[in-house]
Fold this protein.
Amino acid sequence: MDASRLSAVCPRCGYDQSGEVATWSDRCPISGTCPECGTGFDWADLFNPARQDIRWLVEHAPSFGRRLRRTGPTLMRMVLPWVFWRRVDVHARTDVGSIVRWLVVLAIGMHLLTWIPFSILFAMIDNGYWPTIGGVREYLRYVSTTELANALLTGLTWPVISFFGLRPSWTDFYGGRELLGMFRVPLGIGLTWAVVMTALPVTRRMARLRPAHVLRALLLQWTVVLMAMYAIRLLFPIGELSGNTGVGVLAAVVYLLACLWSLVWWVAALRVGWRIRSVGLSILGSVAALLGGVVIAVIEMSVSSFLAP
């Protein structure tokens, strides 16, 4: 064996193990321990990280088609964060680029999936039609091509921009501002946890994690929050049309579950996936994340109010 050609890094902290490899002569050990963070590993896994690939995990899918097929199994396990992190630990190969590509495709898919129902339902509000099959048929029978095109274009870009006004659509189109405002907190929870784990010296020394592990947790958490946002995107026009307060209650439940799930997700990542057993860090990190989410929401809301015409 030519040990000089072998290189490997610790799956947890990224510490270069080439110094240990260089000491090998006629044989190599089966397992080892990182001198930097104390993580145990099999040397074969370090030389070939794909040995630890998980068959159902989107992140490890070798192609676009398989990534789509693994979406369901991945999301189902993410519903219970401790189940997900029990399998996706620090030994699982990280591929942040794969998660980003999947998240972009998933976001576009959810946007297009809700686009036409959302556009038609909201356009019906302006014309006084009720949310029934007959109401939809009646609306589509009498609506002009221009009006329908306006509704579809507005729904396509909402709540990011207003197609015709060329400005943030939450300043002038129904509940867009409220929708985005609701999800500042769970998005901020994830961002705050990521800062706590990567920017604070005390937590960096305690965790000894490569940033890729934290980015994995952040992007996957934001995926579920995004899905909750698109669920409420459809509930907005239904509630507006029907005047049913139960729809608003359902939207509030979805939002609160997204916030609660986000807090549980990060604690599970910390204690189960990364095996950081500190109760103090779990509690203080959760409190800091919740406060950070609120602060981020307040700041963003103030900026939006200032920019609104």
Q: What stands out?
A: Residues 1-5, 162-175 have pLDDT under 50 and may be disordered.
